[in-house]
């Protein structure tokens, strides 16, 4: 629980630092991309903290490239 | 009245107007002074036509200050011309004021064979200006700002009744420490004179070394209250014109009430404030300033301090001493390497000790490990705490040593040696090896030829210690990477701080880590200097060939 | 332009060299020895030869539009939609590579050096320092590499010298024991590590000032780096034998433990760790930089620096969940990495290059046609 709060707080502090000047300059494109990426990143980290298993995309690649390895 | 003979500690400033060699510089200086004061003080209060009102205004402005001397007297056969002179007691050379200004105005002008038709109320100003003042430096004044500036900086101001303008006569000459050996950067071989607190003495020391008409000394006043003279000195055909403009622009931006030391200027013009590393070089040594100017760098001399600034200052400059150029090249090169090594030691030693004893014991050869751990057996603290205790104690000792009165100096060293060295080890608070580490660090941090690079190491050392305590050698490596990244992001007046190394400039390696013999130092540093890069063309010395010698 | 810094050809050469050595210095020998046994040194040299053709492709692609990065090229050549898709594919490869490098650091340090420190702390710390570098820009990264370069070279030389007494020629005999097939197999698998990864320099080459000497610098950097790697593989096999090299996860680190000169100079494997940390730092930082820059160009942002923190979260999480354990990681490296790299870093740029050349030719033809009319 604490880890999640900590993570969210770090995310909050970072966005405060990075975003405020951008909002002042009205760079909405940057703000949107920043928030989308940050929320995906935070979500993944929270899942990791909660020890929920995330399927690794690499297994798919392993399957895909099986014929090309020798 | 002060004596003219030089007294060891107190010395009167030399009057500049009697020396023909310096007059050009003075003219230069004065022209620039005038320009700059005009720019700075937007609303001038003009002089009044009546002398009485002028005197009243001055009196009102300076209040009852006892050191402002106002002398009124009459002139002419009938005494119909009223005149007054003003000067500051202590700043003006009193004997000069008496012998050359007062005497010529009060006595000589009367005895001179001038008919009453010549000397009249109308042309007295011209006559005094062009005939009767045996002084070299004369300025015309029209407003009070300049009147006050000249009075308060030691010049004598002459005001006459009936004129909208006055005259100032250069008569500066106050008690001065004189040219002494610099206390902060001493050399074994090399000139022993150092800068003093007076701007004019300092510029003269530089001019004496570079007798080139292209040496420019440009002065302006900075500080609304202090009106401190700040000169920038450069070689016109060598220094990059853009750099000169940049320095001037940065100085112009300064808007402050007081400049008491060149440190104020340094902090107001440096590129990056939040950095432990200095990007402006300061020195007390005229020879290293002259060397810098000859490389194309710009010196900033501030009145009232012996520390002269040199810009741009790159990382390598802080590891070069002027003595390197006076000694044999091979020795100088070796000593430079020694300095970098010491810098590294001062930075890393305590943290490496912490890292190795806490995380990487396997790196230590077994016999050494046994002796180390037997020493640390009785010590109750982890290595970080031990190191921190010792380093902080040492920093305290060092600070105390700088500030305290000279007389108690020896007691500090006794306390330091006994308490830190012996007692702490015998009491089992710290291990003997820690004492060695701390002393090694301390000695190494004094090797740096400039004091401010030593300070940055002092700060960084603690950061490295914490990194080492949490991540071991990994932490130290990360710290080093971060430090170099930061160093690379720094610029000094637009020039990359690690310049001849990164970006790598092969041509400048001859005077970087290495100091090649003088006959191979053909060119000036590439980035600093954009014009007249060729320095010399001496061939390497060769002994006479045997057959030539026989002939 | 997003990046205002300019780097010289020398800086570029150094960063290519450091990038080539980075990470492969630790994992490379084991991987090669697993496939080619005692002939690994030949496999490594063969891989170097082949990889020159990759560099050739990258240089040709870069000189198609010398002032554009790969992402910008894609858009120019393939149009907005397909171009951006290709770019995202390309960038996701380097997203994985960054996280893989972070993972490698974490695995190595927690298993070999800092056994008690949690892997997350090490990863976060390393990524933060990398982020600091990327924020300061390309110029600073490259100049820092130039500063550390002599150290890396010095440590490498010292290490090689110390290892000379341990060499036993028996270890590389018999030559061609398994015929030519294992050698080809080995070199095939070492193509992805590190030579194909050099494609990231397509994002950096536009910022080199001396356009003429870029080519030479690229070739020279790759070649010297590759030679150092081959040398390393050879020495690993000469000192430890193919079996032992193949079985170890970090053979060159173990190699450091073999050093013993007199009674005093021993156990200096930390030197290997230091070289490796320096080189992998620059490799990670370049990947991270290219990733952020490319992403900013895909989304048409005017500042890549704001992407760094979100990307850091993404990289850390991928580094943690992509491989359940170190065995999975090495399995992936051994079998999937090279074909994956070939697709993304060879066939994709080749495709873009061919289309680009055709388009350029057509444009010229059209121009001359209109002129004729």
Helix count from the secondary structure assignment of chain B: 16
Taken in chain order, the helices and strands of chain B follow as EHHEEHHEHEEEHEEHHEHEEHHHHHHEEH
The most extensive contact between chains is: A-C, 31 and 34 residues
Distance between the termini of chain A: 46 Å
- Strand proportion of chain A, as a percent range, falls in under 5%
* Total domains of chain B: 3
Label the overall shape of chain B: elongated
Gap between N and C termini of chain B: 68 Å
Helix content of chain A: over 70%
Strand order of the largest sheet of chain B: 2-3-5-6-4
Provide a brief overview of the structure.
The complex is a heterotrimer of chains A (70), B (551) and C (373). Chain B has 551 residues and is α+β, with helices and mostly antiparallel strands. Chain B has helices at residues 20-40, 51-62, 94-111, 124-132, 144-152, 199-209, 241-253, 262-269, 286-294, 329-358, 366-375, 383-403, 409-426, 432-445, 451-489, 546-550, and strands at residues 11-12, 68-75, 81-88, 138-141, 156-160, 166-169, 175-176, 215-222, 228-235, 281-283, 298-302, 308-311, 491-492, 495-496.
Give the secondary structure arrangement, pairings included.
The complex is a heterotrimer of chains A (about 70), B (about 550) and C (about 375).
Chain A: H1 2-24, H2 28-49, H3 57-64
Helix pairs in contact in A: 1-2
Chain B: E1 11-12, H1 20-40, H2 51-62, E2 68-75, E3 81-88, H3 94-111, H4 124-132, E4 138-141, H5 144-152, E5 156-160, E6 166-169, E7 175-176, H6 199-209, E8 215-222, E9 228-235, H7 241-253, H8 262-269, E10 281-283, H9 286-294, E11 298-302, E12 308-311, H10 329-358, H11 366-375, H12 383-403, H13 409-426, H14 432-445, H15 451-489, E13 491-492, E14 495-496, H16 546-550
Antiparallel strand pairs in B: 1-7, 2-3, 3-5, 4-6, 5-6, 8-9, 9-11, 10-12, 11-12, 13-14
Chain C: H1 9-21, H2 24-36, H3 40-64, H4 70-78, H5 80-113, H6 119-136, H7 138-163, H8 181-191, H9 211-240, H10 242-247, H11 251-258, E1 260-261, E2 265-266, H12 269-298, H13 308-321, H14 326-335, H15 337-372
Helix pairs in contact in C: 1-7, 1-9, 1-12, 2-3, 2-8, 2-9, 3-8, 3-9, 3-15, 4-5, 4-15, 5-6, 5-12, 5-13, 5-15, 6-12, 6-13, 7-12, 8-15, 11-12
């Amino acid at each position: 629980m604490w880890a999640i709060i900590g993570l969210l707080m770090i995310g909050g502090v970072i966005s405060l630092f990075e975003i405020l000047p951008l909002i002042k300059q009205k760079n909405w494109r940057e703000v949107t991309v920043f928030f989308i990426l940050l929320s995906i990143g935070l979500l993944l980290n929270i899942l990791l903290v909660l020890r929920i298993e995330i399927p690794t995309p690499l297994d798919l690649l392993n399957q895909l490239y099986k014929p090309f390895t020798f | 009245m002060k004596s003219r003979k030089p007294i060891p500690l107190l010395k009167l400033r030399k009057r500049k107007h009697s020396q023909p060699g310096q007059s050009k510089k003075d003219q230069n200086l004065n022209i620039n002074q005038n320009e700059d004061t005009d720019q700075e003080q937007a609303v001038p209060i003009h002089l009044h036509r009546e002398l009485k009102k002028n005197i009243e205004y001055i009196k009102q402005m300076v209040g009852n200050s006892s050191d402002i001397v106002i002398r009124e007297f009459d002139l002419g056969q009938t005494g119909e011309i009223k005149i007054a002179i003003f000067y500051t007691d202590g700043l003006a050379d009193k004997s000069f004021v008496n012998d050359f200004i007062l005497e010529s105005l009060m006595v000589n002008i009367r005895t001179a064979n001038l008919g009453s038709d010549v000397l009249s109320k109308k042309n007295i100003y011209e006559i005094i200006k062009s005939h009767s003042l045996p002084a070299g430096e004369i300025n015309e004044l029209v407003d009070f700002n300049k009147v006050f500036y000249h009075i308060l900086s030691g010049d004598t101001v002459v005001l006459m009744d009936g004129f909208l303008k006055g005259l100032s006569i250069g008569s500066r000459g106050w008690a001065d420490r004189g040219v002494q050996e610099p206390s902060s950067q001493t050399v074994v071989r090399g000139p022993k004179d150092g800068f003093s607190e007076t701007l004019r003495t300092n510029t003269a020391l530089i001019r004496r070394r570079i007798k080139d008409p292209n040496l420019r000394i440009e002065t302006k006043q900075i500080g609304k209250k202090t009106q401190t003279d700040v000169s920038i000195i450069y070689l016109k055909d060598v220094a990059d014109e853009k750099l000169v403009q940049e320095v001037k622009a940065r100085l112009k931006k300064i808007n402050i009430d007081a400049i008491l030391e060149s440190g104020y200027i340094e902090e107001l013009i440096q590129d990056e404030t939040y950095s432990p590393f200095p990007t402006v070089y300061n020195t007390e040594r005229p020879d290293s300033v002259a060397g810098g100017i000859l490389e194309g760098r710009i010196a900033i001399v501030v009145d009232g301090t012996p520390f002269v600034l040199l810009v741009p200052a790159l990382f390598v400059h802080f590891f070069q001493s002027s003595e390197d150029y006076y000694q044999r090249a091979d020795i100088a090169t070796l000593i430079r390497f020694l300095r970098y090594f010491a810098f590294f030691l001062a930075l890393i030693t305590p943290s490496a000790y912490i890292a190795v004893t806490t995380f990487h014991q396997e790196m230590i050869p077994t016999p050494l490990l046994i002796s180390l751990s037997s020493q640390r057996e009785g010590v109750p603290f982890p290595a970080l705490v031990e190191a921190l205790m010792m380093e902080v104690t040492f920093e305290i000792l060092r600070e105390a040593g700088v500030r305290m009165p000279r007389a108690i100096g020896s007691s500090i060293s006794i306390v330091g040696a006994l308490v830190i060295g012996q007692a702490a080890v015998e009491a089992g608070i710290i291990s003997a090896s820690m004492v060695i580490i701390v002393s090694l660090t301390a000695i190494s941090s004094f090797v740096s030829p400039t004091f401010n690079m030593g300070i940055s190491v002092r700060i960084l050392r603690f950061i490295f210690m914490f990194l080492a305590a949490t991540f071991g050698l990994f932490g130290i490596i990360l710290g080093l990477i971060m430090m170099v990244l930061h160093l690379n992001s720094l610029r000094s007046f637009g020039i990359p701080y690690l310049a001849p190394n990164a970006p790598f400039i092969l041509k400048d390696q001859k005077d970087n880590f290495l100091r090649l013999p003088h006959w191979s130092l053909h060119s000036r540093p590439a980035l600093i200097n954009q014009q007249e890069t060729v320095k010399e063309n001496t061939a390497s010395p060769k002994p006479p060939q045997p057959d030539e010698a026989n002939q | 332009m997003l990046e205002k810094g300019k780097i010289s050809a020398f800086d570029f050469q150094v960063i290519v060299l450091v990038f080539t050595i980075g990470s492969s210095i630790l994992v490379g020998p084991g991987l090669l020895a697993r496939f080619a046994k005692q002939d690994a040194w030949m496999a490594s040299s063969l891989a170097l030869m082949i990889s020159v053709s990759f560099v050739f492709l990258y240089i040709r692609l870069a000189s198609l539009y010398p002032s554009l990065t790969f992402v910008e090229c894609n858009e120019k050549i393939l149009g907005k939609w397909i171009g951006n898709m290709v770019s995202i594919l390309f960038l996701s490869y380097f997203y994985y590579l960054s996280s893989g490098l972070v993972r490698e650091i974490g695995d190595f340090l927690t298993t070999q050096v800092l056994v008690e420190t949690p892997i997350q702390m090490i990863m976060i710390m390393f990524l933060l320092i990398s982020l600091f570098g990327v924020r300061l820009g390309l110029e600073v990264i490259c100049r820092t590499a130039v500063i550390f370069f002599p150290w890396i070279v010095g440590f490498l030389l010292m290490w090689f010298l110390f290892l000379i007494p341990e060499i036993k020629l028996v270890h590389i005999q018999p030559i061609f024991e398994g015929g030519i097939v294992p050698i080809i197999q080995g070199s095939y698998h070492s193509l992805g590590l590190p030579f194909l990864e050099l494609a990231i320099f397509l994002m950096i080459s536009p910022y080199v000032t001396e356009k003429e000497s870029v080519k030479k610098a690229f070739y020279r950097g790759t070649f010297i780096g590759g030679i150092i790697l081959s040398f390393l593989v050879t020495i690993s096999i000469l000192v430890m034998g193919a079996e032992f090299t193949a079985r170890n996860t970090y053979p060159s680190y173990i190699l450091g433990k073999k050093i013993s000169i007199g009674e005093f100079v021993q156990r200096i494997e930390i030197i290997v760790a230091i070289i490796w940390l320096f080189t992998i730092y620059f490799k990670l930082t370049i990947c991270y930089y290219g990733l952020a820059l490319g992403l900013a160009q895909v989304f048409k942002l005017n500042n890549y620096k704001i992407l760094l923190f979100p990307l850091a979260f993404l990289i850390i999480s991928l580094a943690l969940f992509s491989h359940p354990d170190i065995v999975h990681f090495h399995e992936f490296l051994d079998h999937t990495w090279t074909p994956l790299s070939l697709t993304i870093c060879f066939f994709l740029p080749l495709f873009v290059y061919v289309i680009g050349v055709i388009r350029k030719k057509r444009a010229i033809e059209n121009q001359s046609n209109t002129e004729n009319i």
